[in-house]
Amino acid sequence: MLPQSLTSKILCATALIFSFLPGAAWADGGFTEPQKVEIQSVIKDYLLTNPEVLRDAITELERREDVAQSLKREKALSDSQSPLYTSQNQAVVGNPNGKVTLIEFFDYNCGYCKRALDDLAKLMKENPDLRVVLKDLPILSPGSIEAAAVATAARNQFKGDKFWEFHQKLLGSHGQVGKAQALAVAKDLGADMDKLNKDSIAPSVKEGIQENDDIAKGLMMNGTPSYVVGGEVIVGAVGYDQLKAKLDNVRKCGKSDCS
Questions:
Q1: Which of 133, 126, 130, 132 is nearest to 99 (CA)?
Q2: For residue 202, is pLDDT > 50?
Q3: How high is the pLDDT of residue 6?
Q4: pTM above 0.90, yes or no
Q5: pLDDT of amino acid 163
Q6: Do 228 and 90 touch, CB atoms closer than 8 A?
Q7: Are strands 232-235 and 100-106 parallel, antiparallel or unpaired?
Q8: Domains of the chain (ranges plus CATH)?
Q9: pLDDT tens digits along 216-227
Q10: Does 68 score more than 90 pLDDT?
């Protein structure tokens, strides 16, 4: 039995082959039923005799999908009014009016995100013009979703440096993080716990997390941490030096790569 993904691709590729037939004639009755049967039989025989055509069709289908994804990604990155940049479902730390922006998608249970936390803290300390946008992308566990929901609610009470303190404590904690750990950090920082619990189950919280997930998929992010700097998507904990170089380039030429 063929793998489901391959079967799907073959069906799509076959549809692509059929798309080269006169569409209006096929759909609107330009061919009689016997003619359609004969055409289908000819195509079937041809594909069985020349199966490499399917391979070529699948290659073309993948190329078209890649082009469509790339265009979608470029549009999201270039549109300054897109949710990537303007959404309410994010926290802004560092300099809110900074000239250079770094966006991070993270998961509170991501070990690489935890290790990258010091890189981000150092960048913020050494770059007073840096605006950092934090977007929850809880993809690793149910606990990640719970922590993201509490963190989203915490943003209603903690702003700027206060939220950054919350974020550092929660992301920097050891072991698995979930609702209990997130609530404990918020309580330690003086949150109104009744309001926090109420806000964390509001429909807008789930919608916000879903929005971030949709944005990440549109940008073809496949893991955390992932960053957006100067119109470039960077997937993975690439380290302080590479992020600093990207930020320096943005200051120099407005892009992450000035070559």
A1: 130
A2: yes
A3: 47
A4: no
A5: 97
A6: no
A7: unpaired
A8: 4-78 (no CATH), 83-253 (3.40.30.10)
A9: 998 989 899 999
A10: no
Which tops the pLDDT comparison, 97 or 35?
97
Q: Which long-range contacts (CB under 8 A, 24 or more apart) does 110-114 make?
A: 110/140, 110/144, 110/224, 110/225, 112/223, 112/224, 112/225, 112/236, 112/237, 113/171, 113/224, 113/225, 113/237, 114/171, 114/172
Return the structure tokens found at 94: 């560092």
Determine the Cα–Cα distance for residues 115 and 24; give it in Å rounded to an integer.
58
Q: How far apart are CA 7 and CA 5, in angstroms?
A: 5
| 43/14 Cα distance (integer angstroms) | 9
Where residue 30 falls among pLDDT bands split at 50, 70, 90? low
Dihedrals phi, psi of 238, to nearest 5 degrees = -80, -10
The CB density around residue 13, as the number of other CB atoms within 10 Å, is: 21
**pLDDT in the model for residue 53:** 79
Structure tokens at 53: 């055509």
Closest CA to 209 of 105, 115, 112: 105
Token pair, residue 137, equals: 């992308």
